Amino acid sequence: MNVKLSVLSVGALFFLGQATFAQKTKKDSATTQIEEVVMVGFGQKKTVQEITGATSKMTAKSIEDVPVASVDKMLQGRVTGVQAGSASGQPGGFANVRVRGVSSINGVTSPIYIVDGVRVANGSLGTANGTSNLTNILANLSPDDVESITVLKDAVSTAVYGADAGAGVIVITTKSGKKGKPRFNLSFNSGFNKQAVEMHRGYTAGEYKTYLRDMFNNTYNTNYSIDEIAAGALKSKLSNSANANAMAIMSSPHDTNWLDVARKDGYQQNTDFSMSGGNDKFTYYVAANMFEQNSIIKNSFFKRLSYTTKLSYQATDKLKISTDFQISHSKTRTLSDAGAFSNPILSQYFNRPTDPARNPDGSWYLGNPSNSRLSNNQFNPGFLLDNNYIQAGTFRAFANLNVEYKILKNLTYRFVFSPEYVSMEEDTYWNPLHGDGYTYGGYQRTSVNRYFNFNVQNILDYSQKFGKHNVGASLIQEAYKSDRKFLRATGITVGTPTLETLSNFVVPYGYQGTRGINSRYGYAVTGHYDYDKMLLLDASYRRDVLSQFMPGNKAGNFWSIGAGFDLARLNFVREMEAISMAKFRASYGKLGNQVSANPYALYAYDTNYNDYAAGRYFNVYNANLSWETVNPFNVGIDLGFLRNRITVSAEYYNKKTKNLIYNVPLSIAQGGVLNDNGTLKYGLMVDNVGTLVNKGFEFSVNADIFKGDRNQFNWSIGANLSTLKNEVTELYGGAVDTGTTTLRVGEGVRSFYLRKWAGVDPSNGDPLWYINGVDGETTNDYNKAKQAVQGSFLSTVFGGANTSLSYKGFALDLQFTYGFGGKIYDNWASYSYSDGQYSLNYPGYGDVMGDYWTPQNTTAANPKPISGGNKLSNRASTRFLYDADYIRLSNAKFGYTFTGDFLQGSGLNSLQVYVMANNAWTYRFDKRLKFDPETNISGYTDLSLPVLKSFVFGVNISF
């Protein structure tokens, strides 16, 4: 094997970690100038040497072929400062993305997404049960069309987006045509999905009977056997209904695994075709994509068809016209989660294993004919998955017209007009025979959710070079408007289960029609100066006006300043070949957070009072409500060694959010409004209440250790690490505590506030908690134990590592991610670890077997089960709080590329075959944790679909 460190030639392209670079060698020295292009605000480009802010970049190489539906699911561990995780494994669902922590209490905490210079819709746009949280409009953009993803994190990088930039900006650049003969690419991969991590198991029938036997004997100080209880031994001790249930359970011949009833093989495939080319006047890129991903649970999938056309025409020496058109249609089938009886994940813990799933003839067992329910009033998930559905069909059309005119040699005007149209049709159907639809005689909910957004930009760019002095400036005018219209109708009672359209449901059950319009416009100016790319200065100012605020408060002013100095460009350092970059940079500024609050006092005329439109209070007036503002400070250093074969970056950030917006509870005297049932419904006022700080460090290193041609050994590595400390520093009105969380000065905005579990008393099986919530003296009285802060949702240390190896056409790429310091709370543990309170009706987790207290097992982790519960042992505490520390092999790809003589005469330029695994291996440091560790972004589990791991085989063909 020929292994050598090769000298990179003039104009060569090479990959360093995850970024693509163009290299030029200066004639007068051995210094290599690296020209990495980074996309920043409004479609503008800068080289890495010109940047004074904090940015992280992913290129097409790190994105291609990854078997996920949307680009937001690729961010975890690949760039510094970003945490991303999915609370659910719903195919096509969205990922929670946090850039440098959480910048708001209950405002918008997700970054904005910019595609080819313009803002696009993101997140979930659904409204139906299930689709409201699990759809993802970004999944309508094919990752195969993405050229690069850049995360903008500090003031200099993001301030040009002003009012919406406080939670970060993610810039997506799609692929474009290049000059040259037509190039065609066809890629296909197909494979299967499995559950990424092992979750809690349900009981077998034998285990369930044993557990209930011990529970009854503990409760009544008896020693009955399963057969004796089945014969009615507890008749004098239980109510008639409870005794009948106990007898039926103990005598049942059935042993049903309810997860197996709902489970299936998860299949997925992706096909992508693209064509590109052009000449000096005209370039084009055209692509079509078909993607399908199925969960391991029946009736849950995501399908997408998308088409992209991107054209660029140099009409004259001064005029250039570019168009970008994306159109897609997706279909999502999702399932109920959380405590819905129709949730198939819940059924494995809440359905009794002693109930059958099917009748002797193979048909589905629907339970008691009088109410069509199982023995504990649950539903049969097998029948529901075959006969019910929650689905959303999403159509998205996105267009981008870009006209560029060169007024003078160094002065260019750009006009951008970009409309985006999204239409989501949602349908919920419940059959009339079994499940939620039984009491309605059938249920159908149909809705149309239409968004029309458009973005208009006028940009004047100036650049001039005076010797070694480089000057640049931009004047920007932008307007953005979102117009949403929503229509919904619901009907019940249908004549036959085969009729599923709304007109066949004969009883109107409700309707809704709303329209919401919000808009903003802004003006910005940016300036850049550098001296030989050694001394760099950046500044920007933007003024935004938002329609939602009161007159006088509608406008916000946002700005940034940044500076950098590259020691490597000093003459005496240039002579040191070992050092190719040593840039120090710093930035500070003021940004805004996205706002969804409404400060107006309104009346809603949506109540029928004797067939007259009745008014009611809809909101509480607050004339003083103002922007949430963010002041990010950033200081960093970028080092390059051996002509940037090794690069290191390190930075510190401190991001302070002021005027935090919060829903402040009001009493009746202050304006709270009571419902008829006595609950407080409109007792809230939106107000600015405090200050929040996110701070931490970020480190990254990338190295090309061996670099040669295709037949030589190549090896590159990269790693990144980020830290986060999130803290509320001011809070008007004092702490806000709930049963599981707290909001208070000195703690993070996503902090758990719980009693601390001290284990089980070995002498009698009682539950124990620490009295002071920390350590020391314990008690078996839940009410005597104090709540205390027990950790945060968010990881405090997180990042990733990657390595790429290749030799003679073979290539292996590995991507690892990790996170430490975060916590996850099991939201349903009070039922699934109930220690007897709910066990007769809802079995819970079968993992408790062998690990609950008995006289023979006094060191067990779970208390003695007692009918009705054991001293509130299943109430909220750290017993159900888990460490989310993990290491994950998030992606692995091994392939071989055929080129040269092998393909001669075939018409092919290259042919690659590969196998790939996504989320193939996950190590959880907390052995008790039976959930996906990246759930900690949300903080809670909700019995949602399991996160998937995928194994695919693929082929890429270029001709």
Written account of the structure:
The chain is mainly beta. It has a domain at 733-827 and 879-958. The protein has 11 helices and 49 strands. It has a 22-stranded antiparallel beta barrel. A 5-stranded mixed β-sheet has the order 6-11-12-9-10. Strands 35-36-37-41 form a 4-stranded antiparallel β-sheet, with no helix packed on it. The longest helix is centred in the first third of the chain and has 16 residues, at 205-220. The radius of gyration is 30 Å and the shape is globular. The two termini are 30 Å apart. 47% of the residues are buried. Belongs to the TonB-dependent receptor family. It is a multi-pass membrane protein. GO terms for molecular function: siderophore uptake transmembrane transporter activity. One of its GO terms (biological process) is siderophore transmembrane transport. Residues 1-22 form the signal peptide.
Kindly report the average pLDDT value: 90
Parts with pLDDT < 50 across at least 5 consecutive residues = 1-34, 676-680
Helix percent reads under 10%
Strands, total number: 49
In quaternary terms, these chains amount to: single chain
- What structural category characterises the helix and strand content? mainly beta
> What does the largest sheet look like?
22 strands, antiparallel, barrel
As a percent range, the share of strand residues is: over 45%
Shape: globular
